[in-house]
Amino acid sequence: MAFDDTAGTAGGPFAPWSRTDDPLTALPTVRLRMLVWIRWCAVSGQLATLLIVQYGLGLDYSMALPVAIVGATAAYNLSLHLQYPPTHRLSNRAAMLHMLFDQLQLMALLGLTGGIANPFTVLMVVPATVGAITLPRWASLRLFAATVMGATLIAFVYRPLPWGDDPLVLNDTYLAGCWIAVMTTVSFLAAYVAQVSVEARRRDRAYATLERTLAGERQLSALGALSAAAAHELGTPLGTIKLAAREITQELDPADPLYEEAALIDTQATRCRDILKRMTEAGRLDAPSSPFPFASPEALMREIVGPYESDERGPEIAIQVERPDLDPGAVPVIPRRPEIMQALGNFVENATDFARDRVDVNIRWDRDTLAIAIVDDGPGFDATILSHLGEPYVSNRRIGSIERAEAHGAGGLGLGIFIAKTLLERTGARVKFVNTSDKGARVDVIWPRSRLDAQGDPGLPGPAC
Fold it and tell me: Transmembrane residues, as ranges (predicted)?
């Protein structure tokens, strides 16, 4: 029976290792064909050695059991070669069992041919070394423990080799030295190659993370270019819409049912024009810098929510500040950088779009962190995509108010959330999306104080802390 992924199912001979939460049942990583090829090399060498000892050296020694073991191994290996395709991969648990089989087969041969004094005991390092390279730490430790127990067993239980008329007598001190030498070699090589393997895996993960980051940066750059082009192209038709809406409101009687709708179109066109203006100014490299490059969290959020507080049809917006009992000079400051203000403004706008009556902006800090929470009393985030928020093309809300959703364009592709989250993470913030207990939505933006209190550029690129 092959040690495949199904070998450890309930009731099988390896059921103790069949737990679904065991790290040994990770995704397949080792190719079976590689282990089969190594085993063919071992079988060839073992068979050649037995033939040389039997016929080349002419020793009077029964080779029936050793040859039977080698033959059974060859038959098992041939069945694996014929049963599975070259691309078949094993789980960590199955790969460990294959290597354990190879180690036990080798120890059985060594026990029948001199035990620990056999010069070929050095071959015990091969399965342990291969396991240290390809298997996770716990699987490698189990394989190493099996090697130690097997080497200790054949140091005491073995069939001595025939030495002719002048037998070679090996005292216990020499045999103990052989055991220590084998264990030292196995331990050193296994630890060394395991460390090299860990470093290689870390490097691969770092490269993969870098590729994902670069892909996100490229996508963000493409969206930035697209938004700049959209801001330029939409200026003219938006001005036409605003002009037409204003002329309609001038011609209609205020009591006309269409007057309110025309006024709404005029108001929203003005809002779109202001948004496009901010986007254009934020993207200009030669834009004049603000005379106040830093602001307190409360002042910054009041500046951001100002345009939304003037909307009579919108919800009430309340800013609450939780001031800790710290030195007044310890009040944090936030750089008034366009990406921070645009990102926080995006979250505030999203909250006002879906809130029923109220949006709360809660600000709190301590000696280590600054947290800004934007909470609304709307329908909350859709639980089915909550864990994917921040990825592009993921719609972020259930539609709670059809009228307001249609008026503000809610239920989009999730690009605004993706851009805002990416921009804030580039400044060192962590962004979390949760649903509150009363079915509202909450966005938490948390900065380390060390990033914000720096006198230099607090938005140096780096991972979010």
Answer: 37-57, 104-129, 141-161, 173-194
Asked if pLDDT for residue 433 goes beyond 80, the answer is yes
Tokens of 287: 């834009």
Cβ contacts of 390 within 8 Å, gap of 6 or more: 417, 418, 421, 422, 431, 433
What integer pLDDT is reported at residue 73 of this predicted model? 92
Q: Using DSSP, how many helices (H) and how many strands (E) does the chain show? A: 12, 9
In a domain, residue 454? The reply is yes
- The answer for residues whose C-beta is within 8 angstroms of residue 212's C-beta and 6 or more apart is none
Question: Which residue among 113, 143, 170 closes a domain?
Answer: 170
Domain count, the chain: 2
C-alpha–C-alpha distance, residues 96 and 23, integer Å: 12
Residue 414: which CATH number? 3.30.565.10
Q: Are 363 and 298 in contact (CB under 8 A)?
A: yes
| Residue ranges in 284-414 assigned as alpha helix (H) | 297-309, 338-354, 402-408
Buried b (16+ CB within 10 A) or exposed e, 350-370: bbbbbbeeebbbbbbbeeebb
Clarify whether residues 166 and 302 are in a common domain.
no
- 302 plus 450 within the same structural domain: yes
Position 363 scores a pLDDT of 92
In the predicted structure, residue 422 carries a pLDDT above the cut 80: yes
Residue 239 forms part of a structural domain: no
Establish if 252 belongs to a structural domain: no
Domain end call among 128, 154, 170? 170
Nearest to 366 by CA among 303, 446, 442, 431: 446
Structural domain span for residue 408? 293-465
pLDDT digits (tens, 9 = 90+) for 285-337: 444 445 668 888 989 998 888 888 766 666 788 888 877 766 655 788 888 88
Angle at 227 between CA 222 and CA 228, to 5 degrees: 100
